[in-house]
Amino acid sequence: MSSALAFQTAAQLSDQLATRKVSAVELAQSCLAQVRATDARINAFLSFDEADILAQARESDARRAAGQARGPLDGVPVGLKDVIAVRNQPLTCGSRMLEKFVSPYDATAALGLKRAGAVLFGRLNMDEFAMGSSTENSAFQTTANPWDTSRIPGGSSGGSAAAVAAGQVPVSLGSDTGGSIRQPASLCGIVGLKPTYGLISRYGLVAYASSLDQIGPFGHTVEDVAMTLQAIAGHDEKDSTSFRTEIPDYRAELKKRRGPWKLGVPKEYFGEGLAPEVRAAVEQAIAWYRAQGCEIREVSLPHTEYAIAVYYIIATAEASSNLARYDGIRYTHRSPKATDAIDIYHHSRAEGFGPEVKRRIILGTYVLSSGYYDAYYGRAQKVRTLIRQDFLNAFREVDALLTPTSPTVAFKKGEKTANPLEMYLADIFTISLNLAGLPGVSVPCGFSSAGLPIGLQIVGQPFKEAELLSIAHAYERAHDFHTKHPQL
Amino acid sequence: MSAAAQSPSSYEAVIGLEVHVQLKTRSKMFTRVATGFGEPPNTLTDPVVLALPGTLPVMNKEALDKIIKTGLLLGCEIAPVCKWDRKNYFYPDSPKNYQISQYDQPICLRGGVEIELPGSARNVMGEHVTIPLTRIHLEEDVGKLNHGAVESLIDYNRAGTPLMELVTDPALKSADEAFAFLTAFRMILVAAGISDCDMEKGQMRCDANISIRPVGQKELGTKVELKNLNSISFVRDGIMHEIQRQLAVVLAGGTLRQETRDYDGQTGTSQSLRSKEMAHDYRYFPDPDLMPVKVDEAWKAQLREGLPELPFDKQRRFFAEYQLPYTITSVLVPDRALSDYFEETAKLAGAAKAQAVGNWIANDLLRELGAAGIELAASKIRPAHIAALVALVEGGAISSSSAKEVFVEMFQSGEMPEPIVDRRGLRQSNDTGELEKWCQDAIAANPKAVAEYKSGNEKAINSLKGPVMKAGKGKANPKLVDEVLRKLLAAG
């Protein structure tokens, strides 16, 4: 099977499936071929079950033959970050701790994809428990950026981004706690959406930081992201933090032109640390919107400078508690050295977790400790409210915000692993959205002189994903960055 | 310390209780799996109970309803918002290694439990006092460890069962008060259907914080937490034992240390589990997986409508409305089904006959049920039976000794009393003509008794009654016999 189908969009593939130009089995085989041809260099996949993938594809073809196709995603392969539970599939979270764990249940988002007829295609690499910005914290492998395999794809959903960028799967799911969808999308030259907190059920998404985590789609185009979002958005009674809100037809909404928009440019996002090439590309994108008749207004988000600090208190506090269940007692790695319960905890956790996970557990344990709670966690929650207030104030004036997604293009493997703080700054433009619960999308907006992708982040208002995607779609249609693919 | 303080009587005990009660709900606190006791290990589990990666809790509204009801019954302030916190600690019986609980905003604040202290005798009502509460909050139960010789097994069936924790003020003064507190609290919860409070099944568990101080001192002494008090009697015994232990230490010139001790009810001894220095830092913080739940007035009003009468209120009403004696009320009141049964019967029989009704239920019915080993609900004798039987006795149609026979047969067959009375020929004679003849015969046949009676020995009349009753084959109404004999003797 040739890779003629590789790099096609989900929308194009969906049309070909609908018109029987291609079968779901042929499409799945094409994806498997592309994985075989490229993944030795990319290392996006932790695992995939070929027999299961083909069985799903055959079921899709049978449905279509019977006139019972379930919609545009029926037969379309979707890769999943290895942090989203799928029944009878591994769920390692990139950790030795869960190396042998197989999930007995489906995440609600995975169930949504199954109901839409999608072919759930393999488990994608990630930073261990979604902690990281380069996918170098995976216990199993480091994923390469398809545009330059000496560089990282971003993280923590690096596998999900690289798999789409490398044409292995048309769309994938990742999770975003501080930028883990948008930053790798930006670094890999594709589209990645972090929806509003509460739009997609977190049931079955292995928790890193519960109040920040959100599942979201990757694709080559905004339309592909909209199609995928459709299958997974909506209230779920199994997640008390999922929101009851009407779910529009995101794909149809894209085509309704609703501009020109009032767009804000937060001045705090264009200061020190922003690479000149990134700044130039983002400013060009802003200029394009202005040229289309959008009103561009400078806005201020004065508490931006506290976002990283607040994030590393709240996220680690929640993580220290969320990861306590990986204790060596039931389904995790258990140290053979252990002789009693306390020993099981000590050795199993020492052996099962990598250094970044341990660092964050220790940090989180510290900030919640008696005597420190008010100074750290309590205060961080207050500042978090101020950060959200900043955005809501800005949204009184504008419909959306335009910012860079990442301060730099993809960096070299190993470049930042020695300095965690430097690594944390990779999320400086994405992290505030998680703290504020807002949706954000990264769309390709250019390339550096070295040919590395640059992303534009568009920040939307709570639960206004349809509008956010329309703004991104308008830009995408007038540019061809998304049509460029890496030479593999 | 003064010499005057150096005797046990110069010290007083101060006790606070922490009571955990499993709520009687169909499903667990944060997932749809059923609750239960005695099921095969690890069958009442699901991905949420087992804390599999990615699972999330969803609150059980029935549990929140029940704890709010408890708060309303006990006069607590109900928090406007039900907020959830995580209590972090590692232990193998805790699947998440944190417990979802309520830390700084318990759902119920203050309130009190009315208790009855022991009376001077069993049939004398004791003093009533109200024990003030600090708080009641909702949380989830943990699993159970079964320790073998070389390995320990974990059963998560209990894990996630809705659990309410009540904390009293340090306001109890004795082991008897603690006993009375648990008795009263259990009575309220069972009556309201909030919990079955079966301590053997671990549905109710109690820890006690105990300290002593010289009488008159305001500050509390060093507190010892006593754990594992797994029956109401063990609570009393354990507290008594601990007070004695503390007195012995202090009177010997020693100092107490703040610690947690484990009480062994079988041997009546306790041993130290951990000292204050080893106390956990639970790192409480709001659970980000659960949204706070608003408890509005309409919700509370709706729950208030379904509240049962408090047992002691019912007792006071039974005194006033039915003139029941204390001993009967103390049998009826703790059992809501039994007191409902009583009231239904009393309604049928008429309030004037309520005492007789109370006697039949508290004595005869309970005895027969106990002997047969069946529950009230399965009894063939229904309120209509007892009301009819009481009417027959009070109306003089049958004697009380006949009534006992009838009762036993009713209990067996479920037949109404009238046909039994007729079939057995137990209807007593109220025909004074016939009676007078029997009485005259008895007077004629017993001149000695007649003489004694006339010489002032009132009791001698009883030896005339025997022959009359015999002549009437038990059908003579004893009250009437007495009247007729006296009349004839006075006349003769």
Describe this structure as you would to a colleague.
The complex is a heterodimer of chains A (488) and B (492). Chain A has helices at residues 10-18, 24-42, 50-65, 108-115, 158-165, 182-188, 222-232, 250-255, 276-291, 307-322, 341-352, 355-368, 374-394, 420-424, 431-436, 465-477, and strands at 45-47, 77-81, 119-124, 171-176, 191-194, 214-219, 262-266, 295-299, 400-404, 440-447, 453-459. Chain A is an alpha/beta fold. Chain A has a domain at 10-256: Amidase signature (AS) domain (Amidase signature (AS) enzymes), CATH 3.90.1300.10. Chain A has an 11-stranded mixed β-sheet with strand order 1-3-2-4-6-5-10-11-9-7-8, sandwiched between helices. In chain A, helix 9 links the parallel strand 7 (262-266) and strand 8. With 492 residues, chain B is an alpha+beta fold. Chain B folds into 3 domains: 3-300, no CATH class; 309-424, no CATH class; 432-491, Orthogonal Bundle (Arc Repressor Mutant, subunit A), CATH 1.10.10.410. Chain B contains 15 helices and 17 strands. Chain B has helices spanning 61-73, 175-191, 232-251, 297-305, 311-322, 326-332, 336-349, 354-372, 383-394, 400-413, 417-424, 432-445, 447-454, 462-471, 478-491; strands at 11-22, 77-78, 81-82, 85-88, 98-101, 108-109, 112-116, 128-140, 144-147, 152-155, 162-168, 204-214, 224-229, 259-264, 269-275, 285-286, 293-294. In chain B, the strands form 4 sheets. In chain B, strands 1, 2, 6, 7, 8, 11, 12, 13, 14 and 15 form a 10-stranded mixed β-sheet that branches. Chain B is elongated. The N and C termini of chain B lie far apart (84 Å). The chains are: A alpha/beta (488), B alpha+beta (492). Chains A and B meet through helix 10 of A and loops of B.
